[in-house]
Design brief:
Layout lengths: L1 H10 L6 H21 L8 H26 L4 H26 L6 H26 L4 H6 L3 H12 L7 H18 L5
Helix pairs in contact: 1-2, 1-3, 2-8, 4-5
Length: 189
């Protein structure tokens, strides 16, 4: 929601109020605190590069939500998603064609079911539901639900014993979710 609000302000000149400005600052502070306090525990060779890629992904998604919203007033969700995926394929295909063609595709059934789940369940349906939601609510509200993914993934990891809650995670989450709340909270009439 924070990046969507910033993109909406840049692209469609949506007004950023004091409340939303405070929300943006809190969300950014939470994200920076999480990144900086986790930096010493990361084993990746270039965690800054990964963080930049995640940020660019979130910013791109923010632009997408702002640009798709007007299309939802004119077209059906399936029409919009058909063209979004078609154009996406055109841009991704040159980078993945060699790997696609060199794959053996001789997978066991559980891998095929996993692939179907990722393509249909977590990609197609997730985008379709987001596009459908854009018909009735603003992009910031739709983007709020994206925050459920890492929260649910963290809960599952903790329940499976693959991760543990640390103080900096709780502080960061409180800052981020407070910022998201302030950005998403509608102005009183």
């Amino acid at each position: 929601p924070v990046l969507v609000l910033i993109m909406a302000a840049i692209i469609i000149k949506e007004r950023i109020t004091l409340q939303k400005s405070i929300g943006i600052l809190l969300g950014a502070a939470g994200a920076l605190f999480l990144i900086l306090s986790s930096a010493q525990t990361l084993e990746a060779p270039a965690p800054g590069w990964g963080n930049l890629m995640v940020f660019l992904n979130a910013a791109s998604y923010g632009v997408y939500l702002v640009l798709v919203k007007p299309l939802m007033q004119r077209y059906k969700p399936l029409t919009v998603i058909k063209w979004v995926f078609t154009y996406g394929l055109l841009f991704v295909l040159p980078f993945g064609w060699e790997q696609f063609m060199s794959s053996s595709w001789d997978f066991p059934p559980n891998i095929w079911w996993g692939l179907v789940f990722v393509v249909v369940g977590t990609t197609f349906l997730a985008y379709l539901f987001n596009i459908y939601a854009l018909k009735t609510v603003n992009p910031s509200t739709v983007s709020f639900y994206i925050y459920l993914q890492p929260l649910l993934a963290s809960l599952v990891a903790i329940l499976l014993g693959k991760d543990q809650i640390q103080a900096h995670m709780i502080i960061s989450a409180l800052l981020i979710f407070t910022g998201v709340y302030l950005v998403s909270k509608p102005k009183k009439a």
